Amino acid sequence: MKPTELSGRPTVQGLSVVDFHVHFRMNHDELTQSLAGGQFSDCGQGDSAGQRAVTTATAATSARWRRSWDFADPEGAEHDHGWQAEADRWVAELSAHSVEHANFVTAGGDAKMHELVAHAPHRFTGMAAMKDPYAPGAAQAFETAIVEHGLVGLKLFAPLMSERIDSTDDAVWRVAARNGVPIVIHFGHCGSAGGIAHNEFSNPAWLEAVAKRYPEITFVIPHFGIQHVQEVLFLMWACPNVVVDTSGSNQWVRYMASKLTLDDLFRRFYETMGSERIVFGSDSSWFPRGFARRYLVDQLRICWEMGMTASDLQNIFGANAARLLKIDGWMPADPSLSA
After folding, report:
1. Taking the model in full, what pTM does it have?
2. Which domain, by its residues, includes 225?
3. What phi and psi values does residue 7 have, to the nearest 5 degrees?
4. Helix (H, G, I), strand (E, B), or coil: what is residue 72?
5. How many angstroms separate the Cα of 312 from the Cα of each of 36, 129, 306?
6. Which DSSP symbol is given to 162?
7. What is the CATH number of the domain that holds 125?
8. Coil, strand, or helix at residue 116?
9. Closest residue by Cα to residue 219 from 164, 250, 177
10. What value does the CA radius of gyration of the chain take, rounded to a whole number of Å?
11. Among 136, 133, 107, 137, CA closest to 119
12. pLDDT in tens, 105-164
């Protein structure tokens, strides 16, 4: 696919695209491995026959999903040439698909994320990530990641936490408020087939108390909130500092009791919340798939067919993310689309 440019900058359909939600080297990341299910063939192998049978079944489910989307299987270890080589592949991927900037939400630890961002600072930003914001030392680790390593936010998975999100332990939230960075919190089911379907911490409705205590923090709920669409919409009505990202295949809609499509999600969130509270993310992660362009073009088609203005699309597919990430001096390549 030939890259397109406007004013010397990469664009897609005349829009400057910022991908808010990308994972780096997931199969090397202890945090994301715990959620991977059957996505990576070398993750989650158990010792017992029963565990091996479960691993085989979930891997088969993930393989069928990849076939349905025409995605290649993740590369094996024999293709791994180190993190620098993979970082270079990501720079090339962004250029090949005319994506201006990628924000990585996981990278195998904050120190590794710091190295990744330093490798291509004009194309990458990165977030801190942790399993449990209530663990001893979590707030200090987050502060270090922001102040010393230059990371631009925090990625959490609610089902992995040791306490519900409305715990009275606000130490991590105070760090985010003090430094003016967003927090991305995954609610709902986690991982590919064989991941976590439900636990007592997975409902985004519990975020309301925290979001109201810290209105200066932008809380981003990825994947349109997954199965908790109604709760997220009411949460956004109650808390103007809560937004959603669009990341991933959003195949979870297939499992809803009532028929729901990605078109429905865009229409409902756009009509109720406007373009300023929807942030594009691809959830890209493995090679050789690389950047999941199909997600981008499907979402663009939906938005154009809904009759959104080009300015609305620029908000969703670039401007909102650039504002949250504080990308220095960022403006759309098309100046007429500036807010």
Report:
1. 0.93
2. 4-337
3. 55, 35
4. coil
5. 34, 30, 11
6. S
7. 3.20.20.140
8. helix
9. 177
10. 19
11. 107
12. 999 999 999 999 999 999 999 999 999 999 999 999 999 999 999 999 999 999 999 999
